[in-house]
Design brief:
Blueprint lengths: L3 E6 L4 H11 L4 E8 L8 H4 L12 H4 L4 E2 L4 H5 L4 E4 L5 H13 L4 E3 L25 H8 L6 E3 L8 H12 L1 E10 L18 E2 L5 H12 L2 E3 L2 E3 L5 E9 L5 E9 L5 H10 L3 H4 L10 E4 L7 H4 L2 H4 L2 E8 L5 E7 L3 H17 L5
Parallel strand pairs: 1-2, 1-4, 2-3, 4-5, 5-6, 7-11, 13-14
Antiparallel strand pairs: 7-12, 8-11, 9-10, 12-15, 14-15
Helix pairs in contact: 1-13
This protein binds NADP nicotinamide-adenine-dinucleotide phosphate (NAP).
NADP nicotinamide-adenine-dinucleotide phosphate binds next to helix 1.
């Protein structure tokens, strides 16, 4: 596999730092550009993140001396020196939309962690194990943008990254009709640590702006179909969600209740979870977990602190499957929000795009 030259826009932020760290150790990707706001531009990366480096490992050597460019004004220079970029900027939605399109129009594909383009009908929003076929809309998007190779692909919100994978292998065979989810989301999802978010210590906050709508609606785009070069969202299942911020550093947990047209047995559900394997596993993509869904028989698992790093934070942990009095079943799911739910999920998507020739 050839090495792809990669840039990160928003490289100084929490998600950007995760991208930089993952790319530094990546067998296919080589970090050649880092970009952020004008506040950071012109400084060596090491200096730009001094005093706000949030990763457990030090700033990677390959990133230290790279001079941070301005993501908004140095687009030509960045696009000319990379095969594609990851986007993790924190700006207004309309600004992010315009910025990502500007890179795509410079023939620089964008793999984005941001929500700005998630509902653009010809932008694929992909969890590689769930809807890799949605990449088929890229030629139509290129046509709209007037590009030869530039396009935008996005990942979905971190909140649903635990429960959608667990529901997916059951959905069609057993006719998933409705699901109720309550999520217990870590503070890194708000770009925070315990030092920068003292109000969360000894606390639960029952509101995360916009998160419940995303948790209810984005699964329907993931489960949608490709029609005339666009994604048409699925009409069912009906999903209702409540999202809480809890005092955990990393790891989003979800309590899930689900009903089916054809109620499966407990054994059937566990079998579908343990045997679920998809395109990333088949292609042996470098960041793909060997086993995507891990079921824990212990009644007090999964636990956020114990299980979030399973398979380098790219697997989903499931447990406590049992019958419910109002829905058919209830169970618990967990995924790492800044790995599988953010930078890691975007890196896996980029690997899939490379493996399928979209980055050539
Ligand atoms: N944290 C998570 O787990 C998570 C999960 C899913 C999605 N997201 C989304 O991912 C994005 C990044 O989140 P984050 O937590 O990493 O945010 P963050 O720590 O605040 O970092 C924001 C980044 O955007 C850059 N930036 C801000 N304004 C800019 C501008 N006008 N032009 C160019 N770059 C600009 C910042 O550069 P400077 O350092 O120069 O200011 C920084 O690199 C957000 O849209 C967020 O909603 C986050």
């Amino acid at each position: 596999m050839k090495k792809y030259k990669v840039g990160v826009i928003g490289a100084t932020g929490m998600v950007g730092q995760r991208f930089v760290t993952l790319i530094a150790n990546h067998p296919w990707f080589e970090l050649t550009e880092v970009a952020a706001s004008a506040r950071s531009a012109g400084k060596p990366y090491e200096e730009a993140v001094a005093g706000r480096w949030l990763m457990q490992t030090p700033v990677p050597d390959c990133a230290k001396k790279l001079v941070v460019k301005c993501a908004e004004t140095d687009i030509d220079a960045i696009a000319g020196n990379v095969d594609f970029v990851f986007s993790a900027v924190d700006m207004k939605k309309e600004e992010i939309k315009a910025l990502e399109e500007a890179y795509a129009k410079r023939e620089c594909p964008v793999v984005s962690n941001n929500s700005a383009h998630r509902w653009t009908p010809d932008v694929p929003m992909v969890v590689p194990e769930i809807n890799p076929e949605h990449l088929e809309v890229i030629p139509s998007q290129r046509k709209r943008l007037g590009t030869r190779r530039g396009f935008i692909a996005v990942k979905s919100n971190c909140s649903l990254q635990s429960y959608v994978p667990a529901l997916h292998p059951l959905k069609d065979e057993f006719g998933l009709t409705k699901a109720l989810v309550c999520t217990y989301q870590a503070i890194s999802g708000a770009g925070k640590t315990f030092e920068t978010f003292p109000d969360i210590v000894d606390n639960v906050i029952p509101f995360i702006g916009g998160e419940e709508e995303k948790s209810e609606q984005e699964p329907l785009k993931l489960w949608g179909r490709v029609e005339n070069g666009q994604i048409v969202k699925a009409e069912s299942p009906s999903i209702t969600a409540q999202c809480f911020r809890v005092a955990c550093s990393d790891g989003h947990m979800a309590a899930v209740f689900a009903s089916f047209a054809k109620k499966p047995t407990v054994e059937e559900i566990k079998e579908r979870w343990s045997s679920f394997s998809a395109l990333p596993q088949k292609l042996q993509l470098p960041s793909a977990p060997r086993q995507f869904l891990h079921y824990f028989e212990e009644e007090n698992r999964p636990q956020t602190k114990l299980d979030r790093n399973l398979e380098n934070g790219m697997a989903v942990s499931v447990g406590r499957l049992r019958e419910d009095t109002q829905y058919d079943y209830k169970f618990v799911c967990l995924s790492h929000n800044t790995l599988r739910g953010a930078a890691g999920g975007a890196i896996l998507l980029a690997e899939l795009l490379c493996a399928q020739g979209y980055m050539d």
